[in-house]
Amino acid sequence: MTPLFRSVLLLVVLGTTACSTLWPEYEKPQIEVPPAPLKPLTVDRQWWKAFGDPVLDRLVDEALQNNLDLAKAAANVAEARANVGSAQALLSPRVDGAINAASSQRQLSLGSKDFDDVVSTGSIGAAVNWEIDLWDRIRQMNDAALARFAASEHARNATTLSISSLVADTWFQLRVLDAKLLVTRAAAANMKSVADLELRRWKAEVGTELAYIQSLAEYKATEARVPTFEEAVSQTELALKLLVGRSPRAIGEPVPRPSLQKLRGEDLPEGSMPTVPQTPREVDSILLLRRPDVASAELLLVAAHADVNSARAEFYPRLTISLLAGFVASTSSAISGMPFFWEAGASLIGPIYDGGLVQSKVDAAEARRQKALAHYQYTVSVAFREVYQALVQLETSDRQFKSIQDELTVRKRSIVLAEKSYDAGRTSKFEVLSETVKALNSALLLADARFSQLTARSQYYKALGGGF
Fold it and tell me: What Å distances lie between residue 409 and 401, 414, 449, CA to CA?
């Protein structure tokens, strides 16, 4: 064993044992959160199936396959995975093939032919270079890359959750608008028949022109609402097609959905709405801290912490060992054939003066860590805020739906009584029309209240992390 090889081996041993250092380990930020419930909450990742709507299930599946935001999130994951491979490669030796060719002439007039002639030399071999990770700089870079890779996967899950929630809410809105359109068309048809009746009564001189004009005005006012709802249905349907990733060719095709059936009493149209599922009314801190966006934010903080350690390691020298071996051929009379050759060496290079470059890198990395910490704390706060908002919306939307449903029941009864009073000749037909318009407005409000109930539940599932 040559002295040079022993020296290189000694440097390697020192670099992998005695000279390593330990940087501060990552510590999870302490955040005051509510205590977790005695029975932990669970959410199915396919939470939208709780609404019992097969069309919604198909739409969400289609969106998760085709949505362009998810495609971008998947590309981010692929990029982060490639960055992990790049960082891990730094831990291994680098082997390069080397082919060299050169010609030289030395005119020294020393009597040797080789000094006067042009000498051509060629070599082929392999070069090995390996930076020994003395101060865990490369390991910290690997830790940062792995954390960012995991964060990108959580970010993709967060995008999946947002897309599925948005598809569900848009679908609910479409069904509500369908119901509103059906209710308004039915009311307009009813008022048209009343206006036609009042016209015949006026012409037969058993009614008045005033009754006819009043009924006609109510019919026209109700009919004017129909185009507004038709446009809203079309716009919402287009938005839903974009969410699920329909191609430009298919974007003109209608979204298949159950046809609305007859109106029944004070309820919404049959088949108009998905099921309103029963949901828990609790806050699970453990579940919330596993939310995809919260988990992603914490992993970005882990990566920023590793970046600080990696930047600080640049204050210390780097140890690199190199080996070059191969075969050489030359026209020189001193070299015959293609003899084997090798060269081995080691270098230890550290900063002496850099104008504050390394310190600037450390300061920048520390600033990014502080920003990542603030982002994590903010994300946790947003998560709890969204859960509490969803709980409030759950409570208020249920109460509002019950109140409007009761009001509509009374309105329907009032119409019946007004009809009886009109048939008995005690009131005019305008009283009946007035109660009908009020009942129509209540029915439209009831559809909005049902929409609030459904979106409150989808937002609650989303706020809890959607099972991720």
Answer: 12, 9, 15
